[in-house]
Amino acid sequence: MSTTVERQLTPTGVVVSHAEANSDEWYAQRDRGIGSSDIPPILGLSNYASAAHVWARKLGRIPRDEAGRAAQWGHLLEPVIAGEWARRHGTTVRTVPTLRHVEHPHHMAALDRLVDRCPDGAGDCALEVKFQSAWKAGSWRDDVPDAYLAQVSWQLHVTGLDHIHVVALLDQRDVDRIVVREAEVIDYTVREAESFWQHVLTETPPPVDSAAMLLDLLERLHPERSGAVEVDRTLVAEIRASYEAAHAEAKAAGERKDAAKAALLELLGGGEIATVDGIPVATYTSVTRTDVDRDRLRKAHPDVWDDVTSQSTSRRFTWKKATI
Asked: What residues form DSSP beta bridges with 222?
């Protein structure tokens, strides 16, 4: 059971509650405002969710996503990474409860760690810890990736801190960055967040720019479907025409792709590597793949089949042949 307190922990950050991180109470508290992890999708910087996904979760229209393996490992390794960063910089860090802005109660942030004494001697600061795949190392080459920059800028706004250190573990190496307060970035982030919050208050969904994001959201909003729905004749005719035109374009693009491939193979003759000035530019090499005879496996070893297979349900979109 958490206890709500009015204790100012940072220049503008007031303690919201002491609910345990990732508990139901913690999530319920977050849904009453905008947290730092909400900012990337609100700004269109997330590859996994849109502002409309955040909106739907805040209003209980869709369930929260379960943490994936990467997130679970990140949670487990966070204390280790933070402790090593503190040791290396000759300081100490500590966990803190979720904070809200002293003047804007719905502006919230959960800091990974508050730094007791900034190693740079440059005022109050915090530490943000990231656990990333080595495949994403390129995005950390010069600066903090935009999605994390937006998240940390929101934390600076909520807490009033001077800067936040960001340490990211990229498999076997780490990168250390500093994000300082930039008024222009924070002002833009706050404006966009406030615009989003009006959608929550009015229960009006924000627009979704990405068709893939919209499809994902609609699947989450309507996991169970049944029955027939009468639709407007003109609108559905326009949608069908657009769909069929795109299908024809994709087919034509596939044919052009095959033609280009054939042209290169004609140049190769019996070779498998195309070179220009001795530098390989394309290859046509053998690839071995192992296939499983599903019917044979199911009949010969039904117990193994039951043990290694699972069922999943999906939906298939089909236009009916009947004209309208």
From this structure: none
Q: Report whether 312 contacts 305 (CB < 8 A).
A: no
Which CATH topology does 13-221 take?
Lambda Exonuclease; Chain A (3.90.320)
CA triple 120-83-165, angle to 5 deg: 35
Q: Which helix (H) or strand (E) holds 191?
A: helix 183-202
Place of tokens 């994709």: 250
CB-CB contact of 12 with 160 (8 Å) = yes
**Chain segment 271-302, per-residue pLDDT in tens:** 999 999 999 999 999 999 999 999 999 999 99
- Round to whole Å and give the CA distance between 24 and 1: 11
- Please, which residues bridge with residue 276 across strands? 279
Token readout for 256 is 């052009």
Indicate the pTM of the whole model.
0.79
Sheet with 113-115, edge to edge strand ranges:
93-94, 113-115, 125-132, 163-170, 173-180
User: What is the Cα Rg of the chain in Å?
Assistant: 26
User: From CA 43, how far away is CA 57, in angstroms rounded?
Assistant: 16
Q: How far is CA 23 from CA 78, 84, 284, 288, in A?
A: 17, 27, 53, 47
Residue with tokens 């996904």: 53
